[in-house]
Amino acid sequence: FEMPAISDNIRVSRDGQYILATGTYKPRLKCYDLHHLGLKFERCLDAETIKFEILSDDYSKLVFLQCDRYVEFHTQQGRYYRLRIPKYGRDMAYDRTNCELLFVGASHEIYRMNLEQGRFLKSLESEASAMNCIKINPENELICAGTTAGRVEAWDPRSRTRAGILDCALQALNPDTEVKAVPGISAINFRDGLTMGVGTTTGQILLYDLRSNKPLRVKDHMYGLPIKSLEFHKEHANDLVLSMDAQTVKLWDRESGRPYSSIEATADFNDLCLYKQSGMLFIANEQAKMQTFYLPGLGPAPRWASFLDSLTEELEESMVATTYDDYKFITKEELYDLGLDHLIGSALLRAHMHGYFMDVRLYRKAVSAKAPDRLQTMKKDYIKSEIDKLREKRVQVKSSLPEVNKDLYLKLTADKMEDNTKKKKKKEQGNLLEDNRFSSLFTDKNFEVDTTEEAYRLINPVVSKLDKGKKSALEKELANAKAEEDEEEFRQSGDSDMEDSSEEAESSSDDDQEWTKEIKREHKNIQNEKREAQRQQIAAKREEKLLRIAAKEHKFAELEDDQEVKTKKKKKSKQSLEDRLAAESNSMEDEVQKSGSGHTFTFNMEKSKSEKRKDVLQQKHLEERKEVRRSAKHLKKDKLPPRFWMGKRVR
C-alpha cells in the first residue's frame, strides 16, 4: 500500500475483500482488491479527506467528509452528489437502521442527514461549544459524542433526546499531572452494549460501564499526545484494547491493564484499522507507504495472506521484546533535580538514549517528596538574598575581577590593551567583555572552564598565551583601578601601520614557537601522569593478590622419626604422556618438602591468565584433532607377484 506523500484514513469493506485508503498529494482515494492483491482503482478528489465511511458491503457506495465543509457521495462510476454542511466537520457516523448520517465539528449541533429522504433533519443540540468525535453503539443504537470540554453526551435515537452526560475530564487527571488545559475527548469506541472506551487529548484511555459514571480502568500513554483511535479485539480468546496516538500503538489487556505489545512509530500515525477474524492490522501514517503488521497472537492470517502463517512459524523466536509500559522517561538533568542520581546503574533505572526509564510510581513518589524541599530551598534563597543586602551596606573592598573564568577575563583585557597601544587599523568588531549576551560567561559557574581536563591542556587555550608576569601585573592593576576608565584616542597613520604589522608578524611567529613547545611539554606531562596512574593501579592489584594468597589456609603435616621424605622424582623426559598430562592438570597444587625439619608445607598456586588461556586453547586443539583424526587401516599395500630364477623363487 502506498500514497504519493502521506495517508490519512484507511478502512476495510464489510465483506473483507477491499481495502480503501485516502491520502495526499494530490488528494485521492485508492481501492485495493485483496483477492488479486493489486490496485482496483484510484480516484482523485477536490479536497483533503477528514473522514470517510463505506455505506455498502463493498466499495460501490462511499461518503467523504472533506476539509472545506463539503460532503461527497461516490458510487462505482465516480462522484454522485456533493453538498455542504454549515460548520467545519471533524467526524461522522452512519446509522444503518435509520439510514442517517451524523456530523459533528466546530459547532454545538449534531447534524442529521437522512439518505432515504434525501434531506437534513432537525439537529441534536449539545451543551458544548464544539465536538471532536461521534460513535454509534452497534447493539443498542446509542449515539455518543465527545466534546472539547471533556464530556461524553449520549443521545437516544428513538426519542431524539439526551440520555445522559458523562464527565471524563476529572477522572483522566492524576494528582501530580500538570494541567495546561481541560482534556477533551478525541476518540470513542464500543466493545459491546455496555463497555465503552474513551480517549482524551492528553493521552489517557478510560474504560466505562455505561451503568456507572466512574471508569473501570484508566490507562496513560505517557506521551501527552491525543488518542487518535481505539479498537477492541475480543476474537480468538483474546480480550485486548488497541489504543493509538501519533507515536505508538499499545496493545494491553482490558481486565488487568497489563501490556501485551506495542508498535513504535517511524512517522506519525494517523489512523488504525483491524482486519476482522485475524491478527492483521493496517496503519495510515505520515509517509508514503502505509504500514501493515501481523501479530500471530491475535489470530491467524487472512485467507488471502495464508503464507504468513508458515513464515511466522519459521521465524518464531523464544525471546519476548520488553515493553516499557507504565514507565516514565526522564533526562539526566531531571534525575539530578529529583535527587535520584544515586540510582544510576541500579535496576530501578533503565538507560535509554539521552535519559532513563523509571517506574511511574517511583517518579510520582519522588515528585511528591520534592515539593516540601522546594519550599525549603525557596526560603533559604530568600534569607540569603536578605543577608547579602545587609552586607552591601558595610565597607567592602570591591574588585573589578570576576569570580568565574578569571584567567580568560585577564587574557581578553590584555589583548584589548595591546590592540590599543599598537594603533592597529581594524574594522569595528564586537567586544566580548562589553557584550551583554556573553555576560554569564563570567558570572555563571556552569560556564567555568575546567583547566584540569585533558582536552583543555592539549589544545593550549588562549588563556595560556598570557605570561605569568603580565598576568600578575595586570591583576594588580585591575584590582586597584578606578570604576571609570579614561578612554584615549590615537591617531592612525600608514607608516605606523606597516611597522605594527611587521612587529605583529614577528611576535605571532614567536608565539607559535612558544605554543608548540608548551603543547609538547604538556603532552609529556599528561603521558607521565597516565604512566604513574597505571603503575599505581598495577601495584594496587599486586598487593591485593598477595593479600588474597596470604589469607588462604596452609596445611602442615609432621613426619614420624622412622618416616623418610622422598625427594627423588622421575625425570619429566622419561615419564609417559599420561603421567605428564596428569602432572600438568594437577599443577595447581604443588608440594615443597624439607627433609631436615621433617615437616611438609603444601600450598595452592593460582595460574595466571595467560596460562589459563593456553590451557583452554590446547584443550580445544586436542578436541578438534580427535574429530579430524582418521584411521589408516584402509590403506593397504598391494602384494607384488613372486619372481623365479633358475626354477627357484627369489621373491
Structural write-up:
This protein has 651 residues and is an alpha+beta fold. It has ten helices and 35 strands. A hairpin with a 3-residue loop joins strand 18 and strand 19. Helix 5 packs across helix 7 (468-479). The protein is flat. Residues 424-429, 482-505 and 588-597 have low confidence and may be disordered.
Instruction: Walk across the major sheet and give the strand order.
Output: 1-2-3-4
The DSSP helix count reads 10
Beta fraction: 25-35%
- Approximate helicity band: 25-40%
> How many strand segments?
35
Shape: flat
Low-confidence stretches: 424-429, 482-505, 588-597
The largest β sheet comes out as: 4 strands, antiparallel
Q: Please state the CA-atom Rg, rounded to the nearest Å.
A: 42 Å
Provide the structure class. Answer: alpha+beta
Alpha carbon gap, first and last residue? 88 Å
Architecture blueprint of SSEs:
Layout: E1 6-12, E2 18-24, E3 28-33, E4 38-44, E5 49-54, E6 62-66, E7 70-74, E8 79-84, E9 89-95, E10 100-105, E11 109-114, E12 119-125, E13 131-136, E14 143-147, E15 151-156, E16 161-167, H1 169-172, E17 185-190, E18 195-200, E19 204-209, E20 217-220, E21 229-233, E22 240-244, E23 248-253, E24 259-264, E25 269-274, E26 280-285, E27 291-294, H2 307-314, E28 327-331, H3 332-338, E29 349-352, E30 355-359, H4 360-392, H5 406-422, H6 454-459, H7 468-479, H8 494-550, E31 555-558, H9 577-585, E32 589-594, E33 599-604, H10 609-628, E34 644-645, E35 648-649
Antiparallel strand pairs: 1-2, 2-3, 3-4, 5-6, 6-7, 7-8, 9-10, 10-11, 11-12, 13-14, 14-15, 15-16, 17-18, 18-19, 19-20, 21-22, 22-23, 23-24, 25-26, 26-27, 28-30, 29-30, 31-33, 32-33, 34-35
